[in-house]
C-alpha cells in the first residue's frame, strides 16, 4: 500500500519536473496500472479547429508492452502537419511506466512515467516526467497526470496537467466522460493566463478482435484561456489494439 508521505513526495516530484510547453494535440491521459504480458499498438490523432492554427494536427504511433506487473516499456514516433503543409516526423521517444502502489483509503493507484525524446527539424531533445493517479470505483474512473517536461538545454521548466473522468454506461464497452489538458506555467512564473482544452469524450471497447480487443476514443475539447488566441478547439481520435502475448 502507498503511504501518504510517499504519495505526497511523489506529487512534489511530479510538480517539480517540467511539463509540455503547451497542451499538444494527440496527447493521452495515462492510467496508473500495468498488466504483465499485455502489448498495445496505439495511434493518437488530434487536429486544431478554427483560428489561425486551424487544421494543424499531430499524430503519434506508439507500441507498449507490460514486462511485469509493475513496469511497462514503450517506443513512439511523433509526426505533425501545419495547415497546407506536408507531414513531418518531429520526434522519436522511449518511455517507461512504473507503478508505485495503491492507497486503499482513496482507492487510488499511483505510478510514475518517464519519457526521453529526440527531436528532429529543430525540435529539442526533452525528458518528460508524469505523476499518474487513477481512482476507480465500480463504473467510475478518474485520472490525473501531473506533467513535467524539460528540454535538455533550456530553462525554466514548464508545468502542465491532463485529467479525465468517465462512466461506463453500457457494460464496460461504452463509456462517456470528459477530458482536460492545460498548462500551469513554469518554474519562473506559475499560473497566470495559460492554454487549456476541456470537453466531452466517448470510449468504445470491441472485444474478440483476433486475440485481443480494439479500443476507440473520440472527443472534442474546447479552447480556454490563451489557447483561444489561435484556435477554437481540438478534435481527438485514439485507436488502440491490445492483446496478451
Rounded Rg: 18 Å
Q: Helix tally?
A: 1
Low-confidence stretches: 1-5, 7-23
**Residue-averaged pLDDT, rounded?**
88
How much strand?
over 45%
Spatial separation of the terminal alpha carbons: 28 Å
Number of strands: 12
| Element-level helix/strand string | HEEEEEEEEEEEE
Tell me the strand order in the biggest sheet.
1-2-3-4-5-6-7-8-9-10-11-12
Classify the helix fraction into a percent range. Answer: under 10%
CATH topology description: Porin
How many separate structural domains? 1
**What's the CATH H-level superfamily name?**
monomeric porin ompg
The biggest sheet amounts to: 12 strands, antiparallel, barrel
CA-based shape:
globular
CATH class category: Mainly Beta
Structural class: mainly beta
CATH architecture: Beta Barrel
What is the strand and helix layout of this fold?
Elements (H helix, E strand, L loop, with lengths): L3 H13 L21 E12 L7 E10 L4 E11 L6 E16 L4 E12 L6 E12 L2 E12 L6 E13 L3 E13 L8 E15 L2 E14 L7 E12 L1
3D structure, described in words:
The chain is mostly beta strands. It has a single domain (4-244), classed as Porin (Beta Barrel). It has 1 helix and 12 strands. It has one helix spanning 4-16; strands spanning 38-49, 57-66, 71-81, 88-103, 108-119, 126-137, 140-151, 158-170, 174-186, 195-209, 212-225, 233-244. It has a 12-stranded antiparallel β-barrel with strand order 1-2-3-4-5-6-7-8-9-10-11-12. A hairpin with a 7-residue loop joins strand 1 and strand 2 (57-66). The longest helix is centred in the N-terminal third of the chain and has 13 residues, at 4-16. The radius of gyration is 18 Å and the shape is globular. The model is unreliable at 1-5 and 7-23 (pLDDT under 50).
Amino acid at each position: 500500500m502507498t503511504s501518504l508521505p510517499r504519495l505526497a513526495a511523489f506529487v512534489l516530484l511530479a510538480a517539480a519536473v517540467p511539463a509540455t510547453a503547451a497542451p499538444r494535440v494527440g496527447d493521452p491521459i495515462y492510467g496508473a496500472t500495468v498488466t504483465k504480458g499485455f502489448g498495445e499498438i496505439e495511434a493518437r490523432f488530434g487536429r486544431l479547429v478554427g483560428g489561425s492554427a486551424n487544421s494543424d494536427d499531430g499524430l503519434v504511433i506508439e507500441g507498449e508492452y507490460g514486462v511485469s506487473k509493475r513496469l511497462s516499456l514503450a517506443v513512439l514516433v511523433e509526426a505533425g502537419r501545419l495547415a497546407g503543409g506536408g507531414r513531418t516526423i518531429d520526434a522519436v521517444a522511449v518511455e517507461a511506466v512504473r507503478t508505485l502502489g495503491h492507497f486503499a483509503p482513496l482507492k487510488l493507484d499511483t505510478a510514475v512515467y518517464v519519457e526521453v525524446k529526440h527531436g528532429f527539424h529543430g525540435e529539442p531533445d526533452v525528458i518528460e516526467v508524469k505523476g499518474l493517479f487513477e481512482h476507480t470505483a465500480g463504473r467510475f474512473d478518474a485520472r490525473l497526470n501531473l506533467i513535467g517536461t524539460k528540454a535538455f538545454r533550456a530553462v525554466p521548466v514548464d508545468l502542465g496537467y491532463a485529467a479525465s473522468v468517465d462512466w461506463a454506461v453500457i457494460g464496460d464497452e461504452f463509456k462517456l466522460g470528459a477530458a482536460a489538458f492545460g498548462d500551469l506555467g513554469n518554474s519562473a512564473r506559475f499560473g497566470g493566463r495559460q492554454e487549456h482544452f476541456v470537453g466531452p469524450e466517448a470510449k468504445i471497447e470491441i472485444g474478440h478482435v483476433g486475440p485481443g480487443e480494439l479500443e476507440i476514443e473520440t472527443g472534442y475539447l474546447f479552447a480556454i484561456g490563451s489557447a483561444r488566441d489561435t484556435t477554437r478547439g481540438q478534435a481527438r481520435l485514439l485507436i488502440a489494439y491490445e492483446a496478451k502475448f
